[in-house]
Each structure stands twice: as C-alpha cells, then as structure tokens.
Amino acid sequence: MLAQEIIRAKRDGRKLTEAQIENFVLGLVDNSWSEGQVAALGMAVFLRGMDRDECVALTRAMMHSGRVMSWPDMPGPVLDKHSSGGVGDKVSLMLAPLVAACGGYVPMISGRGLGHTGGTRDKFDSIPGYNCTPSPALLDQVVRSVGCAVIGQTADLAPADGRFYATRDVTATVESVPLITASILSKKLAAGLQGLAMDIKCGNGAFADSAAMAQELAQSIVAVANGAGLPTRALITDMNQVLGRNVGNALEMREAISYLRGEPADPRLHEVTLALAAEMLLLGGLASDHSQALAKLQQALDSGAAAERFAAMVTGLGGPADLLQRPDAYLAPAHVVLPVPALRSGRLTAMNTRDIGIAVVELGGGRRMASDKIDFSVGLSSMCQLGQLIHAGEPLAFVHAADEAAAARVIARLQAACEIGEAAAWQAGPVIHALVGQP
C-alpha cells in the first residue's frame, strides 16, 4: 500500500479505509512514512476532515501503536479526566485525590504545558523528589494502594501520536477536530480506563474560543470515545478568565494544597472541580445521581480524606511526606514579588486570558521550545476576578518573577490585559456551559 495513494485519497475527499489508516499509523512508528508524507496527510485531513468511523479507526490504531496499560483485579473503577487546556487550570491536582477518596482509581497520565496553557505534569514537577516517570510496577503499586497517581506521559504510550503531533505542530495542522480527538483519546484508551470525564474549555483563554467550536470538539470526543469502547462525557466550561487565583506551577500547587486543606477556595474553581469529579463518580457507578456524587465529594473534602490521598500519593512517588503541612518549605519562591496596580477605579469587566497565560510563559513559567527549562517559582497570585470592584492603585494581582525587569514587563502586560469599566451592576456568567453525553 503506497503512502502517496493514501494521501491522494484523502486529498480528493474520499473516506479512508481502516487498512489505509493502519498503514499510516504503522508508518509513523517504523518511519516508513517520511516527514513530508506525514505532513501531507495531516494537511489533507485538516482540509477535508474525517468522519466518525475514520476518527475511531485512527484513535484505535494510535492507541495500539505502543503499550496498552491494564489494571487486572482492581477493586474499583479506573477513571480519569482530561482538559483541553486553560490558564490557571489546576483542577486535576485536587480532582484525582477527591475521586480516589470516593472509591475510584485514577491513573492520570498528564502532559506538559502547551503554548499559553499550563501543564499538570509541570505542576507536579515543582514538588522536589516527586517522580513523574515511575516504573510500571511503582505506578501500579501507588494506584492500587492510594487510589490515584498523577504522572507524565511516557514515550511507550501511543508513540504514533507523539510523532504525528510533532509534525502537525510545525505544519499548522493542530486545529483539526478529528485529529485533536484522536490525539487525546489514543492516549486515554492506552491507559486502560473504564470512564473518562472531559473538560472542554471555551473562551478567550482556550483553544476553543467559540461556543460552536467547543460544542463540536466535545461532541466529537464523546462520540469517538464511546465508539471506541470508553464511556465518556464532557463538560464545556468557561475560560474567559483565569481559573482560580494563581497562575504558575508552584503557585498553582500552593492553591491546590490550600483547597485540599479546607481553606477558602475560589468558587468557580470549586464548582468546576466538583462537577467534573461528579461525572467521574457517575461513570464509575460510585454514585446513583449527581446530588449524591456532589455530597460524597464534599464529604471527602471536608473530612480531610482527599488531602490524605494527595499526601499519600506524593509520598508514594518520592515527594516530601509533609508537603501538605509545610508547602513553603518545598515549593520554590520567586526572587521578586511585586503588585500589579490598577490604573483606574471601577469594576473588572473583561480579561484577555490568553495574554495572561503568555505573560507567565514569558516569565519562564512555560516553554517557547520543548527544550526550555521551566522556572517553577514564577507566575501570578491573588488574581482579581471578573466583576470585582477595584480602586486605582490596588493590586490586580501579584507578579512573581526572577528579577525586577521581568516583573515590570509583566505588570504592563497584565494591566493591558485587564479591562476596568464603570461600576455598574454585574451579572456573572455561568462557569459550566453545557454537558455533552447522557448520564
């Protein structure tokens, strides 16, 4: 089967057969497809699309391109959650131990930051000693004994996706719904899950910046996942402002620890975390309805059971045993912390969330290139939220930077990204826009 004939078929708008798709995926792994051929098929799919059957076939083929994990004799359902990416999105840090405390088992394979969005893997890398790449035996042991383990993606899980994504990233073909769907789900299916909750971010800080695109992506992921045998539901959630109060790896870890310790939490962050965790409990048969799921999760938080699971996970993967009690002893502080003064009085009516994410990358909290080393200490804390009244000179946030010059650049950028209007009545929009997939 010739690669150029497969490319020609998709270029001309024809549906690819399962055999053609399997030939392409094999070519990704054994390098029998050149970079030019991989790029050409990626562009053909970007322009011509894929139907549901093609997307399922691509997802399954990439899933089986490497190791497929299994969890024999697990005493409860194996569940996970995935986010399409946002700014300040630290939900996974609290969600995994919350679900574990309610009887689920969560082997969460997390990624690094991409573009202006933060990565869960990077947040856990901010914990000294924490092993994001444990052996399969240690991962199995921690998941079984604790109920959760958040680790980084390994090269042997869906390796075909790794090569295909790297080519798409440099050929302007990332923004394809079927290819995004197959990329996400091939890795989740390879993790041996029994249920998946998807968080599709929608807004000016998300990849899906319109409601129509978010709906299309959510429907595609739910349909393809269920078609491939993985029960999945998706929530479309708001990303028109930072989620929570902190942005940046160690700063977001501090906020998550504060949340698990029962300290006052940002209401939007709390709502999204519990909503996604509740979907996981329902998918796993751990609650009979949404109200019961929320009650179980709140009890796990209030009783400290979720915090205990988090602490046990950190210790089991090599991190400090007293991280929950003494986070400041382990999470690196920035050299410079400066306020971002509001330029006028009024109400915070809008923020350019993507620009805020880029500002954290420019501080060193994200990567311009894959080889960049991250400064875990930098970022923004105590971010004001939309609708908040503020007086001129009061802080919109605090910048955590390596030096004063970097802090000054981000202060100006954040002031430009935050719109302060007249102090009229404010009606907050919903943080959860829609549920895709039937309970």
Count of β-strands: 12
- Note the overall shape: globular
> What structural class do you assign from the helix and strand content?
alpha/beta
Q: Sheet bearing the most strands, described?
A: 4 strands, mixed
**Individual helix count:** 16
**N- to C-terminal distance:** 43 Å
Detailed description of the structure:
- The protein is α/β, with parallel strands linked by helices and 439 residues long.
- The protein has helices at 3-11, 18-30, 35-48, 52-63, 91-101, 120-125, 136-146, 159-169, 177-190, 211-227, 249-260, 267-283, 290-302, 305-316, 353-365, 404-417; strands at residues 79-83, 106-110, 148-152, 195-202, 232-238, 336-341, 346-351, 379-381, 389-390, 395-401, 418-421, 432-436.
- Strand 4 (195-202), helix 10 (211-227) and strand 5 (232-238) form a beta-alpha-beta unit.
- Helix 4 (52-63) packs across helix 10 (211-227).
- The longest helix is centred in the middle third of the chain and has 17 residues, at 211-227.
- The chain is globular.
- 52% of the residues are buried.
- The model has no long low-confidence stretch (mean pLDDT 92).
Q: Brief description of this entry?
A:
This protein is an alpha/beta fold and 439 residues long. It is 45% helix and 14% strand. The mean pLDDT is 92.
